[in-house]
Amino acid sequence: MNARTGHRLTTALKGLLVATAAALGILAATAGTAPAADPPSGGGDALMGRARELFKPLPATLPVVRNNAVTREKIDLGKMLFFDPRLSASGIFSCNSCHNLGLGGVDGLETSVGHGWQKGPRNAPTVLNAVLNVAQFWDGRAEDLKAQAKGPIQAGVEMNSTPDRVMAVLNSIPAYQAKFADAFPNEKTPVSFDNVAMAIEAFEATLTTPAAPFDQYLEGKADALTDTQKAGLELFIDKGCAGCHNGVNVGGHDYFPFGVVAKPGAEILPPSDKGRFAVTKTADDEYVFRAPTLRNVALTAPYFHSGKVWDLRQAVAVMGSSQLGATLSDQEIDKITAFLTALTGQQPRVDYPLLPASTPATPQPVFK
Ligand code: HEC
Ligand code: HEC
């Protein structure tokens, strides 16, 4: 029996007990008032029960990563690589340039700016909790973080490097060779482009944000959410937001059209970016995007793949009309937004790594 059915059973059982007790007049007699329909148990309430059916608290433990045994050595190396701008051709951009870990794992730009000051086509999603997403990128085109990491290093508008150049950089720095040998023991060629991706993935797996007020609530702490946030949670469920943003990551696990009921204007949904259509070439996937995780969403403006919306309240309103055909009132928007702020978790504490010095053999930065 899994936790979900277990929970449903206890709820049913509780209902039965309350009904029986009420029939015998026990509750009314002892409490002197009418029995509550669903009395708190372990700090719980009816809303908490409903929330537990739809969401899961984010575990404080390291998530399991498919096909990559995460070790301390890999994590340490991956952290260095995440912060090392020498993975870019110009020596200017590191992963952290666009996924700033002091800023919720994003760059705070409409769309990212990379090599040669070029503006990319999409807003940078956060790397926080990305390990829990079903696949990576707005259109899910990379199946996991190790596949993902090779993309930006080579993308012309991002880091504009090549696997050969990255190998030349890392092999020119003895301290990196030693770190790769530690992280990938018993391998014939520890310094490889694949292993760069494996190490970065291992580090990214540590970038989870547990213990948000909402997690504490799901774990039974009824007063972890304010009354306004609870009202927002109720609306989030009742209006249908939770139909697409649910599970442990409050999203991140499935694809939906942006504009299920009504397409947002071209300003927010530029016609040129057809989303998942580019991956599957299926007409049904035109303007389909992964429903993003809403964890830490209060930290990651601007919103949507186009990055055109700067105010979280406006993003909520757009979702109401485009995905649900509902015009949310100002009060409803305020409450839902208050709930979304309860999804901000403990940010990972990352010490800036010391990076080993380049040598005369290290390829020099190129700007064109
Ligand atoms: C110039 C800015 C830039 C740099 C540098 C950059 N990224 Fe990104 N990153 C982006 C953008 C923009 C996207 C979204 C692209 C898309 O969906 O098509 C993205 C997407 C991602 C995602 C997917 C998250 C999700 O929820 O789908 C991850 C993970 C990620 N980047 C990690 C990295 C790593 C690791 C590096 C370094 C090797 C890196 N990025 C370098 C801008 C950047
Ligand atoms: C039918 C599925 C669906 C429903 C229902 C839905 N969403 Fe979304 N949501 C999405 C998708 C898909 C995106 C990504 C859109 C894009 O940028 O391409 C998104 C994006 C968002 C964003 C922007 C996040 C970011 O990081 O940019 C917020 C905030 C959001 N949704 C909140 C809500 C709220 C609040 C509701 C209920 C009023 C809701 N959503 C209902 C699918 C849905």
Write the layout of secondary structure elements.
Layout (H helix, E strand, L loop, with lengths): L2 H21 L2 H6 L14 H9 L17 H12 L11 H4 L14 E2 L3 E2 L25 H10 L8 H9 L2 H10 L9 H12 L8 H6 L8 H12 L16 E3 L19 H4 L7 E3 L21 H13 L5 H12 L27
Antiparallel strand pairs: 1-2, 3-4
Helix pairs in contact: 4-8, 4-9, 6-9, 11-14, 13-14
Bound molecules: heme C (2 copies).
The site of one heme C has 26 residues, from helix 5 and helix 6.
Radius of gyration: 24 Å
Which structural class do you get from the secondary structure elements? mainly alpha
CATH architecture of the largest domain: Orthogonal Bundle
**Overall 3D shape:** globular
| Strand percentage | under 5%
CATH class of the largest domain: Mainly Alpha
Distinct ligand kinds: heme C
Q: Detail the poorly predicted runs.
A: 1-42
State the distance separating the first and last CA atoms: 59 Å
Largest sheet: 2 strands, antiparallel
Helix and strand string, N-terminal first? Answer: HHHHHEEHHHHHHEHEHH
Question: How many strand units?
Answer: 4
Description:
This protein is an all-alpha fold and 368 residues long. It folds into 3 domains: 3-39; 72-204, Cytochrome c-like domain (Cytochrome Bc1 Complex, Chain D, domain 2), CATH 1.10.760; 213-341, Cytochrome Bc1 Complex, Chain D, domain 2 (Orthogonal Bundle). Helices cover 38% and strands 3% of the residues. The protein contains 14 helices and 4 strands. Helix 4 packs across helix 9. The termini are far apart.
